[in-house]
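Notes from the 1:1 (GR / supervisor)

We went over the backlog. Supervisor wanted to see one worked example end to end before approving the batch request, so GR pasted a single chain during the call. The sequence is below; no edits were made to it. Supervisor asked that the structure be written out right there so they could see what the output format looks like.
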Amino acid sequence: MQDFHGLKVWHKAHELTLAVYRTTARFPREEVYGLRAQLRRASSSIPANLAEGCGRNGDSEFARFCSFAMGSASEREYHLLLAKDLQLIQIEDYEDLARCAIAVKRMLAALIQKLKADS
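Structure output shown during the call:
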């Protein structure tokens, strides 16, 4: 068992989740239970899965939760694209969020690879 606060990828995913919450606060009222909720859920699921995985026993269990986080990262990536295409977010906000989302996915991929190599 390890402390998730020590993971750089958790910090990056948490920062991105906060940015998603700030950005989606400007979504229209009719999106409160639609795309805004989906985007927020997918975003918060990433650091939450990392935290849960840290509380599990062994690298294989942790790697499994990292894989769940990767799935949520891909889901969030799509929802960001959809929000941009629906003109719910500015192109500059999309580009910043997408750049951070790709960085998180790369960090997750490297962590998963390391965990699998160690087991």
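Supervisor's comment: The first helix runs from residue 8 to 24.
Batch request approved.
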